[in-house]
Amino acid sequence: MLTVDNKVIQCRFPQLSLNINTLTFNIPDTDQPICQSWFYPIIIENYHARLVVPYLNCTAIFYVGEGDKKYEKIPVQLYFNVNILLISDYFTVRCKDPSSKAIYPSLPYASIHYNPNTRDRLANIKKNEDDFNVLVLGFDSVSRLQFERMLPKSFSYITKQLNGLVLK
Fold first, then answer.
1. Where is average pLDDT lowest: 13-22, 106-115, 158-167?
2. Which residues pair with 60 in a beta bridge?
3. Strand pairing report for 42-45 and 48-51
4. Strand runs labelled E in the chain
5. Of 51, 57, 100, 130, which is the most buried if we count CB atoms within 10 A?
6. How are beta strands 2-4 and 42-45 bridged, if at all?
7. Contacts of 110 (CB under 8 A, 6+ apart)
8. CA neighbor of 49 nearest in space, from 110, 102, 115
9. What pLDDT is stored for residue 72 in this prediction?
10. Beta carbons of 56 and 43 less than 8 angstroms apart
């Protein structure tokens, strides 16, 4: 565990030799950091985020902006089991334990937030019989051959049922 100003910045497994005789153990009575890659303190559902870990104090920092301009950071406090509306598609979540020691890394999230302008624009699009959808599925030559060998039913469905075109 590496720390700077009593904040955990990284968790590492020690590289120790089994034959070392100068090794001493010093286990302090402090809270140890949680170093788990599967730790996700929030759930995203229906354009909302919700904190699902009751003992954490978490803040979502939304990045609002467009294009190459500077993005504005908007922090929103998260409360246990309370839904908040997603403000933007990209945000990070920072969590602290009850004693306010930062032990959790900043977690990035990408989702789709509700945008009423997009809904209005899509509702007013006129449909005609010439509309079509295009799916481009790209593989390099090795991946394409592996796809044909390992997923023959999927390959057959894409090429025969959907009239997919294979470029060699």
1. 13-22
2. 76, 93
3. antiparallel
4. 2-4, 7-10, 42-45, 48-51, 57-64, 72-78, 83-85, 90-96, 107-110
5. 51
6. unpaired
7. 89, 90
8. 110
9. 92
10. no
pLDDT tens for each residue of 46-95: 889 999 888 888 999 999 988 788 889 999 999 999 999 999 989 999 88
Query: Strand, coil or helix: what is 91?
Result: strand
Beta strands in 13-129 (DSSP E): 42-45, 48-51, 57-64, 72-78, 83-85, 90-96, 107-110
**pTM: predicted TM-score of the whole model, two decimal places:** 0.51
Q: What is the pLDDT of residue 29?
A: 63
The per-residue pLDDT for range 106-150, each reduced to its tens digit, is 888 888 888 888 778 878 777 777 776 677 777 676 677 888 888
Looking at the chain, how many residues does it have?
168
CA atoms within 13 A on the CB side of 97: 12
Q: Which amino acid, residue 21?
A: N
Q: Which two three-digit tokens encode residue 115? A: 């945008």
Tokens of 109: 């999230």
Return the SS3 of 84: strand
